[in-house]
Amino acid sequence: MSASAKLPPFDAADPLGIDDLLEPEDLAVRDTVRSWAADRVLPFVADWYEKGELPGIRDLARELGSLGALGMSLTGYGCAGATAVQYGLACLELEAADSGIRSLVSVQGSLAMYAIHRFGSEEQKQEWLPRMAAGEVIGCFGLTEPDHGSDPASMRTHAKRDGDDWVLNGRKMWITNGSVAGVAVVWAQTEEGIRGFVVPAGAPGFSAPEIKHKWSLRASVTSELVLDDVRLPATAVLPEGAGLRGPLSCLSHARYGIVWGAMGAARSSFEAALDYAKSREQFGRPIGGFQLTQAKLADMAVELHKGILLAHHLGRRMDAGRLRPEQVSFGKLNNVREAIEICRTARTILGANGISLEYPVMRHATNLESVLTYEGTVEMHQLVLGKALTGLDAFR
Q1: Where is the Acyl-CoA dehydrogenase/oxidase N-terminal domain (predicted)?
Q2: Phi, psi for residue 162 in degrees, rounded to 5
Q3: What is the per-residue burial (b if ≥16 Cβ within 10 Å, else e) of 296-312?
């Protein structure tokens, strides 16, 4: 650039010029999802959150399917075949509306659909994926149990052969989409090790009671899965999903979406605080004119856009086939932790108004408390990175 070249103006919404890294197709995906969320989620989500419900979830799923947002980074079977960066941008925009909406999409696409797409038979793919991509069937993913979260290898849900059939018994806990799902991907112990099963929700012995009394992810369906002598044919087994590598690879794919999504919640809270700081007056002028408030805003902006850059970098690595699970842990650990801190700082700028559902900040903060620990707690991701850095396994 010559010394006389004119610099672009500073953009408070994109201070690092990250949009320059995006292709027109990326921007189109982002803007489409942002517009949908602004129309179909933002006007209603505070009320949904207060009531602890997500009404019309099946209609929302079909609309998301029509956008190509369900299983969007998968190819074939009605899936959009989008890039990892485009999927990440969609997650960011969805979570800027609410973590519960992004969770609906993540569990559908990155867990249930991804498991069938990667580990399923051709018959399983043909049966389920086109309807799931269209949002006609909602899926859930049964791994976590009441007594086994971070240690899935110790799961108690088991499947035993009975002739040509399998019989499943056990419980799964904290399952997003569970009570509205038409199909569940359930992981169970067998004599051959851990295996995945495709379980239709109508199978006798299968039930999914909804979990109530949550103070986080309230605009989301969370359930228990109960399997009492659920009999399945041999064709229900995911043929390529033997061992823990099956569910863990699904989790890695879903965690990648969280790396982006957490920055959506952070951006929403930061924008609310910035707007408030410019209009709220104390001592005769806007509070945004005071040094302590500007310091908070500057620190939040730095962490927010560093996190988006990190997400973008990981997305490019995923698109190049070079993203390692340890790098996903790096992103999930950093971005969720920083997003919570941004929300908490934004709350201090809003003062008492920060606890009101008139503003999104407290809703995002409480949602992120769940995002912080699901699909890998802070401690588990620290240990993943610790093992990668030292070569020493501290899990046991």
Answers
A1: 24-136
A2: -140, 90
A3: bbeebbebbbebbebbb
For residues 218 and 283, membership in a common domain is answered with no
Identify whether the C-beta of residue 52 lies closer than 8 Å to the C-beta of residue 212. yes
Which residues have CB under 8 Å from 148's CB, separation 6+?
154, 155, 156
User: Which residues does residue 206 pair with via DSSP β-bridges, in sequence order?
Assistant: 227
Task: Identify the weakest region by mean pLDDT among 96-110, 140-154, 371-385.
Answer: 140-154
Q: What is the token pair recorded at 366? A: 């409480």
103-119 per-position pLDDT tens digit: 999 999 999 999 999 99
pLDDT for residue 14 is more than 90? yes
Same domain as 77, residue 157? no
**Residue 1 pLDDT:** 52
- For residue 262, give its domain range: 245-390
The answer to whether residue 102 sits within a structural domain is yes
- HEC per residue, 182-197: CEEEEEEEECCEEEEE
Domain boundary residue, one of 186, 207, 236:
236
Q: Spot the catalytic one: 127, 145, 338, 375.
A: 375
Residue 233, φ and ψ in degrees, nearest 5: -75, 165
Which pLDDT belongs to residue 33? Answer: 97
- 341: annotated active-site residue: no
| Domain termination residue (choose one: 205, 236, 267) | 236
Q: How far apart are CA 366 and CA 377, in angstroms?
A: 16
pLDDT at position 242 is: 85
Average pLDDT of span 294-321: 97
Q: For 173-188, how does the pLDDT look when each residue is reduced to its tens digit (9 = 90+)?
A: 999 999 999 999 999 9
- Claim to verify: residue 189 and residue 251 sit in the same structural domain: no
Task: Give domain status of residue 396, yes or no.
Answer: no
Flag whether pLDDT at 151 surpasses 80. Answer: no
